[in-house]
Automatic annotation (TrEMBL), chains A, B:
This protein's name: Putative NBD/HSP70 family sugar kinase
Family: Belongs to the ROK (NagC/XylR) family.
Source species taxonomy: Bacteria, Pseudomonadati, Pseudomonadota, Alphaproteobacteria, Hyphomicrobiales
Domain of life where this protein originates: Bacteria
Gene Ontology MF terms: kinase activity
Length: 415, 415
DNA sequence: ACTATTTTTTTCGAGCCTCGAATTAAAGGG
DNA sequence: CCCTTTAATTCGAGGCTCGAAAAAAATAGT
């Protein structure tokens, strides 16, 4: 709530509806009494809010899944999010891959589809066409009891403008400024979010492990490029204008190695897979890097680095230094925070860890000098998928099902 | 307003009170009709809120300063913040200098006092003693119609922990972890804020030029050390745990010049005044830098750099590169934003600008490639002062005078 | 079988809030 | 001296949350 915003009485109900939906989403199956205990709201208020939500079809009483039986007193009746109130779609767009999935409002997968596309040769229209085809298929084949499609969330490898739901630039395709949001929004008549995949990863991590990834943490994706999803003060941090924190394009060496973004000396130009292969293949660091990297070759190089101390090991060490130097600068700006390393780079963490920690060490500086926490997740795709799903569902929870105005409730719109 | 917070009906009033106080603080003299126009609240609500604020003594009708006369209809009656409802104190702590000032609730200076202290030799008790002495003097000598002291805001050169109102580390004194907040809070029975001086500068800039320094901007203080105050999404950005964004300690050159913080290669180790003098005095970049710098000598070096192309000019160019490299990394993380350069470094901007811009250029990258805006403010002290004042006053506006509960209103507490 | 007990959930009134409409207040114009 | 115009307040309607009381729905005991 900002200082220049005006508060109205129904804002109170809106906020408390959000609160109820959030606890239901987190716990799955909860009685009204449980909700009272979890939220701190009074029983009367919880009663009022839940009856409203039930009448709008957003949540439902779950008769079968009764919580506790064989106890004295009136039994609690379990409430749960109504899976059939809405469907959301997620689209992951990566190099040569489109992955679309449908989820119900409870977060259960309804259907999914993979599609191989030569993204590097694809024009924006080709990409959009592929995505629409997949979504059409999925929507047509879904069971009749599924709810109406109400949100699409895209996670893309590239720089995005969240406000305009546009992909500004991406390494996976030559076209720029692709307005996925506008197109999909018109075609399916729903709101669309277009976010950087790293932000989706961060979202997923925070959802699955809120203990560890709490208010402040960073998820760094080390794969085809280097990106970062950042959570600060419990909120995803999007740049001032565009999208993600472009960790990979922080400056490591002034006038250094050529980066795929066209500039010189970026962290990515030392630590990404293409940077490693450029180095181990004997090319100059100013040479244009490969657009695509064969994972098999990358693994081979990594294994060679593990077995003998040669050019390969040196390349990974350089990578560790680049990431470490970026982290040290990052930690100077925002204090040390837990880090998740995701993607192929996480699979070679053993090769970069020592150099990385060497450079970072001493960062903690004046504050509580805690140990730097780094966790690795070699496979990024499940995280991206889950992050997209949570983005969509939380959007519905907080933006669509939150307004108390029953006259414009989505279920009525869908009728 | 967070997702796990519960909303109550009186929160609405609290928020709208804040809104009214904020518009009054910004515009100074406003009729109820003006407030209606500015805020968007209904006349009835504005009437209710203003009568409450008047009865609590927080604002007052200003009979003399009538806004518009000679017009048909009932004349508007001007409202204004009541200067006598509270007094706030600011303390600026810098190298060899303590500056304490008293302001009334309207932001008018009541009294001020400067004190020269050899901070480098001072123990924490000495510093606290000096500050208390000054505040005692000021409070005793203030006019009888002044309001009760209700907040103290300190701006210090060093790393602070805002939550604990503690100065963790500072270049101006050997002692660490000085709990100014706790001591002053007990002694004067008020809340105390301890912030990094750069954050105060940012606060002041946003207040004086909200057009230019809007949602996102950075204020970089180039003087005895290098610090940064950052505004993101319209809110001051404090690190995850400690205090300011330590721009000066981002990594510029791995294993590079020795920084005063004990590490190597920080931006500060190339761009601060002591770094320039270390270089021009023929010392090695790994030598321990001077603790104190004579401004006269610094100016002399700058002038030499302007007149001939020698070691001095090279030193400033190095400084420009260091700052530029930091900015480029910063802009990678949070997108390009307007920058204010403050302090002695701003006076030599002509010597560093070219190299700085060279390194930064290309940062804008994919987004709207706007021109990097840099403005210079050679004297940091007025900004720090104003920032401290605004911090205190806004704290009163939003935290103390906002709760609608009239039973515990501060003016009653003071009686 | 029937009542007492226990626990959950709903209902109802009090006390907040904002807002629109009507009313009162306080000037200038003719 | 009345009319017009503008400012500010008052009042009722419709929200909201909450505490207390009532209703609902089970088990336990006789």
């Amino acid at each position: 709530m900002f200082l220049d915003e005006i508060a109205r009485p129904d804002d109170v109900r809106r906020q408390n509806r959000r609160l109820v939906l959030a606890t239901l989403r987190r716990h799955g199956l909860l009685s009204r009494t449980d909700i009272v205990a979890q939220t701190g709201l009074s029983p009367s208020t919880v009663s009022a809010i839940t009856t409203a939500l039930i009448s709008e079809g957003i949540i439902a009483e779950s008769r079968d899944g009764d919580i506790i039986a064989n106890r004295r007193g009136r039994p609690q009746v379990a409430l749960t999010l109504n899976p059939a109130v809405a469907t959301v779609a997620t689209v992951e767009l990566a190099l040569n891959l489109v992955h679309a999935v449908l989820f119900d409002y409870k977060g259960q997968m309804i259907a999914e589809e993979f599609h191989r596309v030569s993204t590097l040769d694809a024009k924006s229209d080709d990409l959009i066409h592929s995505i629409c085809l997949m979504l059409d298929n999925l929507l047509e084949s879904r069971p009749s009891n599924a709810g109406p499609l109400m949100h699409i969330s895209m996670g893309v490898q590239g720089v995005t403008d969240a406000a305009r739901a546009t992909m500004l630039w991406s390494p996976i395709t030559p076209d720029i400024n692709i307005a996925f949001g506008e197109v999909l929004s018109k075609r399916y008549d729903v709101t669309v979010a277009v976010a950087n995949d790293c932000n989706m990863i961060a979202e997923a991590l925070r959802w699955t492990d809120p203990e560890h990834y709490a208010e402040d943490f960073a998820a760094i994706l080390l794969s085809h490029g280097i990106g970062m999803g950042l959570y600060l003060k419990g909120k995803p941090f999007l740049g001032a204008h565009s999208s993600a924190a472009e960790f990979g394009h922080m400056l490591h060496v002034p006038n250094g190695a050529l980066c795929r973004c066209g500039r010189h000396g970026c962290i990515e130009a030392y630590a990404s897979d293409y940077a490693i292969l450029r180095r181990t293949s004997g090319q100059d660091e100013k040479d244009q890097p490969a657009q695509d990297v064969d994972p098999a070759i990358y693994d081979e190089v990594a294994n060679r680095a593990r077995t003998r101390d040669g050019e390969e090991r040196a390349a990974f060490r350089k990578a560790g230094q680049a990431i470490g130097s970026g982290l040290r600068s990052l930690f100077s700006l925002i204090d040390p925070i837990p880090v998740a390393l995701v993607g192929s780079g996480a699979a070679v963490f053993d090769l970069i860890e020592d150099d990385l920690r060497d450079i970072v060490s001493g960062t903690s500086g004046w504050g509580a000098a805690q140990e730097l926490s780094i966790r690795c997740y070699p496979d990024e795709h499940p995280l991206i998928l889950q992050g997209c799903m949570m983005t969509s569902l939380l959007h519905l929870d907080t933006q669509v099902f939150a307004p108390g105005d029953a006259g414009d409730t989505p279920i009525k719109r869908a009728i």
